[in-house]
Design brief:
Elements (H helix, E strand, L loop, with lengths): L2 E4 L1 H9 L3 E4 L3 H6 E3 L3 E2 L5 H7 L6 E4 L5 H11 L5 E4 L2 H8 L4 E3 L2
Parallel strand pairs: 1-6, 2-4, 2-5, 5-6
Antiparallel strand pairs: 3-7
Amino acid sequence: MTYTCIDVSDALPIIENDALIVDIRDATSYQNSHIINAVSLDNDNVQTFIETSNKSRPIIVCCYHGNSSKGAAEYLAAQGFSEVYSLNGGYSQWSAMFPEQCELGS
């Protein structure tokens, strides 16, 4: 299995078509602001996520700037997720382009 890097502008239609966004930034950053409906994923909950998630649902991995998400996307693809994307530019680019798609505080 492999993953695909995707630009922020190309991610929106995939998200609107039922993709799940996983945010791998630290808990404080996620709590301060994140993409609407994104799930916070870290070392403490990744195994449960893998065991309980629908592996055929598209997954978009988001980090700060689009670097760390590549490793996480590769890992999730190796765990059997069939359609995995790494978000180029990460949350910083997403929030600059689509601030209305961000949830502040949680």
